[in-house]
Amino acid sequence: MEAAVTMPIERTAALMEVRQFLNSLTTSSEVSDEIKRQATRALRHYPSASEVNMLAEKEEYIRRIGGTIPYNLLITARLDETGRIQKLIAEDSEIRT
After folding, report:
1. Do 80 and 9 form a contact (C-beta atoms < 8 A)?
2. Using an 8 Å Cβ cutoff, are 69 and 62 in contact?
């Protein structure tokens, strides 16, 4: 069986969406106080959507100047034709850590 290949846009979006998920756990009435504390602690150190985008820009720059990166890990909002990444960055600005 062949393993599923994760596309750079899926990886970038997943990183950004996990931050939203952690944030939702911190205010959910359906999870325990311990889960809320753990989510808050993780969220405090989790990269923002803008920081993930910045990492993608650095990866793109390294590739452009001839640096070796084995494959595209992330994609920038600038290269995202769907607008998904830009939308996640905008939504992330509302998360306070």
Report:
1. yes
2. yes
- With contact defined as beta carbons under 8 Å apart, do 69 and 56 qualify? no
Helices in the chain by DSSP H: which ranges?
A: 8-27, 33-45, 49-64, 84-92
Q: For the whole model, what pTM was predicted? A: 0.83
Taking the chain (97 residues) in runs of 10, the rounded mean pLDDT of each run is 80 96 96 97 95 92 81 86 93 85
What is the number of alpha carbons within 13 Å of residue 14 lying toward its C-beta? Answer: 8
Contacts of 48 (CB under 8 A, 6+ apart): 19, 92, 95, 97
Q: Which amino acid is at 90?
A: A
